[in-house]
Amino acid sequence: MNAKQMIEENNQKRKQLTEENEKYYSDLLLYLRTNWQVSEVHTEEILLELLDHLLEGQQDGKTANEIFGGDPKHYADQLIEQLPREKKRSWFAFMTNQFLVQIVVYILIIRGVVLLVLPLFTEVNDQINIFSMLITVICIGALIMGIARYIFKVIHQSVFKENHAEWKDSVKVGAAAAAGMGIIILLSVWMPEIGPSIHFSWWMSLLLGGGIWVISKMIKRK
Fold it and tell me: Is 212 in contact with 108 (CB distance < 8 Å)?
């Protein structure tokens, strides 16, 4: 099975857990999945093995505490040490597909819709500067990747904390997102136009955005 199939099976099997065991296991699951350095496939494999072991023990009246021990963080850290690391190229490919490609698609489609509707009310300029557009997309992609990794880190560090104030995590994530949005706005305002600008109509924008989306979906399925 691939990672997606294992996640779906995991979601179905977890419904059989008692409330106490589900809480213990969910913390383990969240802690392992938010460690971006380890292999996703091997992580899902070990999570399924743990779940099967827990379900067998649950049938005998055992709790997750009795099966895995009273220190889930220490147990999870031991598991992480044994898991193979994710290859850098695999992580880069995942992040590129999940964020950078999607960003390009959203920008193109939103731009196409705006250019289609806005001329009904006012004049619009459908010229784009190749340099500023390229740099802006790269910067937005890098910012979103960085924010995503930061969110994973915040969640990972807070999973097993007793009496943890979740609002503090929300403030940290919100501040990071606000800072990222501010940088994106500044980029869009101050980015210099260097080199040629080209005519890029609304239908070209929609067509290109839809084409990239279809190709990315086909590659992901393969």
Answer: yes
**Burial letters 16-47, b for 16+ CB under 10 A, else e:** ebeeebbebbebbbbbbbbbeebbbebbbebb
Which segment of 53-67, 79-93, 127-141, 176-190 scores lowest on mean pLDDT? 79-93
Helices assigned H by DSSP within the chain: 3-13, 19-33, 40-59, 64-68, 72-82, 88-95, 101-117, 130-158, 166-190, 202-221
Residues 73/31, Cβ–Cβ less than 8 Å: yes
Between CA 50 and CA 55 the distance in angstroms is 9
Write the pLDDT tens digit of every residue in 63-122.
Answer: 999 999 989 999 999 999 998 887 655 555 666 666 667 778 888 898 889 888 888 888
CA-CA distance, 13 to 48, in Å (whole number)?
9
Q: At residue 56, what are phi and psi to the nearest 5 degrees?
A: -65, -45
Indicate the domain borders of the chain.
3-82, 88-221
**Under a CB-based contact definition with an 8 Å cutoff, are residues 157 and 35 in contact?**
no
Q: Kindly report the pTM of this predicted structure.
A: 0.69
